[in-house]
Write a structure and sequence with these properties.
The chain is α+β, with helices and mostly antiparallel strands. It is built from six helices and 32 strands. The strands form nine sheets. Strands 9-32-31-30 form a four-stranded antiparallel sheet, with no helix packed on it.
Length: 557
């Protein structure tokens, strides 16, 4: 056959050129008619595998034995094998299936998948896809409405600001007018006196040039009168004292957008997407609080190293600190996981943990607030004239620090990194919110952004809102206790409840976010409770100062 016409001709037998050969040798890769199959197999110089043309390429070549075709499938090894593979004993005891049966089973699965994709899955995805234009249009329309509403509200705020500014300007003009009236009046009085003095000077000169005794004798001196200078007019010019502009207060005044909630639904079950916020589920208080775990630490009165602080790294690990210069991480099995010494060698007054799991501590003697990043300690805040006592980390990542001025005064300071953003020190009457002594004043920000301070010296919980305005002061419930209320540690939970440790009465007070007493935790054999923190599952971690134990307590559902 002319090879130049081969590509244009029908398939032919490789040996006799008969058109439409029904057989094929998978090893030699040639087409054969039925009459030539015997002749082809008679060549014993190499192996042959003659199969119907439609099943050509069915048996793949063995990867381990060249020129050998696989006839079986090893389910254990998930590979095709030839007869030599079987005889080698490598697949002894493995389940082996004929290639044809394996192929038929696979094709059955493929057919089912194809049918499901074509008739069920793909149409459903097409239906979902068709909804996106409408959903996008709704998003754009809603954004347009929100932008318009925000712009309208912004115009109202601008008008209010303009009104306030114009009133101040008007007050300046009015004060200027009053000052000028007073100055003009005083000026006119002085001018009148100057005129009189000028006239008297002229009169005296005239008398001096006259020899008329009767004329000169009429002169009456007024110098004594003029020696008494008129009262000096002191004008106290007004000054403008701009207040600090707090961005968070401005945002609070403007309003806020509700959280974006992106949900995926599966068979009626709704799952929040990562990053989407939702209201916390209701977790009522249980009738009888109970201890879940007790962590035994190396702290304790017997070791002259009392335990004072605790902060949750997770629900399974907590940072602790006492009277020495070490901060220690324990797990629920009382195992010491990690220890870190303070940078200065001084004891840490308080500790906190950021949302990214970094440890923060205050150093009273060094006047610093420090953060531990990958075992490296960085000083974030260095105070001048003030000393840091206690610290907490806000939901936005700010640091709120209670500071004291050599026991003369105390105030709360908010920092974004090393930048001071807010100071809270006085109430509306100009009176100090917090006692001056450097006794414990643990601090915590509530879910509603209130700032809660346990002022042990004054025996009160002092709560201000985000802007620093006093909301309430809690000094204990009306019921009688053996000892005066002495709050030390303080923390809050997902329900905005406030928990504080009453060290002298060996109990925990639980309040709602408005300062109403809810109940005690006084049944867990607490001994000198000090530092507190609440985990992500609303379990309370509480340290006992003298025993050195950390108790994990369930108090709500």
């Amino acid at each position: 056959m002319d090879p130049r016409t081969w590509a244009q001709d029908v398939l032919r037998c490789h040996l006799c050129a008969t058109p439409g050969p029904p057989m094929y040798c998978d090893i030699c890769h040639i087409h054969l008619c039925k009459a030539c199959v015997g002749e082809h197999l008679s060549d014993e110089s190499k192996d042959h595998k003659v199969v119907p043309f439609k099943k050509r390429g069915f048996a793949p070549e063995c990867l381990n034995h060249s020129k050998k075709l696989c006839e079986l499938y090893c389910e254990h090894c998930n590979i095709f094998i030839c007869l030599e593979c079987v005889s080698s004993g490598e697949h002894l005891g493995h389940k082996q299936v004929e290639l044809l049966k394996s192929l038929e089973a696979k094709k059955e699965v493929l057919q089912k998948d194809l049918q499901e994709l074509e008739k069920l899955i793909y149409p459903k995805y097409q239906e979902i896809e068709s909804n996106f234009p409408d959903l996008k249009a709704d998003v754009k329309e809603n954004s347009k409405k929100l932008t318009t509403a925000i712009g309208k509200h912004g115009s109202i705020l601008h008008r209010e600001i303009d009104t306030a500014i114009n009133k101040l300007k008007s007050d300046v003009v009015e004060m200027e007018s009053k000052h000028l009236v007073a100055l003009n009046k005083h000026e006119n009085e002085i001018k009148c006196i100057c005129t009189e003095i000028t006239q008297i000077i002229g009169y005296l000169k005239k008398l001096l040039n006259s020899n008329d005794v009767s004329f000169v004798s009429t002169y009456q001196s007024r110098n004594a009168e003029f020696r008494r200078l008129p009262p000096k007019l002191t004008v106290s010019l007004p000054i403008f004292t701009p207040h600090d502009i707090y961005r968070e207060q401005i945002y609070q005044q403007i309003g806020s957008l509700s959280s974006l909630s992106i949900k995926t639904e599966k068979h009626g079950y709704t799952m929040e997407s990562p990053g989407a916020e939702s209201s916390p589920p209701d977790k009522p208080l249980i009738d009888v609080p109970q201890i879940i775990t007790e962590i035994t630490t190396e702290y304790g009165e017997s070791n002259y190293n009392r335990l004072r602080n605790v902060s949750c790294l997770s629900d399974d690990e907590v940072w602790t600190a006492g009277d020495d210069n070490m901060m220690k991480l324990y797990n629920l099995h009382s195992k010491l996981v990690k220890s870190i010494q303070t940078k200065s060698g001084n004891r840490p007054i308080d500790i906190a943990v950021t949302q990214s799991g970094e440890l923060v501590y205050t150093d009273l003697s060094d006047r610093t607030v420090n953060i531990v990043k990958n075992t490296q300690i960085q000083t974030v805040i260095r105070l001048q004239g003030w000393k840091p006592l206690h610290v907490c980390v806000t939901s936005s990542g700010n640091l709120i620090v209670m500071v004291t001025d050599d026991e003369k005064q105390a105030k709360v300071m908010r920092y974004s990194g090393s930048t001071e953003k807010q100071t809270i020190q006085y109430n509306d009457k100009g009176q100090p919110l917090y006692s001056s002594h450097s006794y414990a004043k643990y601090i915590s920000q509530n879910k509603n952004l209130d700032i809660c301070v346990a002022d042990s010296e004054s025996g009160a919980i002092v709560v201000v809102n985000q802007a620093g305005k006093l909301r309430f002061t809690y000094t204990g419930p009306p019921s009688t206790t053996k000892e005066p209320f002495l709050p030390i540690g303080i923390t809050t939970d997902s329900q905005s409840r406030i928990l504080t440790a009453d060290i002298k009465n060996h109990r925990i007070h639980i309040l709602d976010q408005d300062g109403q007493f809810l109940r005690y935790i006084d049944n867990c054999h607490l001994q000198y409770p000090w530092g507190l923190c609440v985990g992500t599952r609303d379990n309370l971690f509480m340290v006992e100062r003298d025993t050195g134990k950390v108790k994990k307590i369930q108090y709500c559902m």
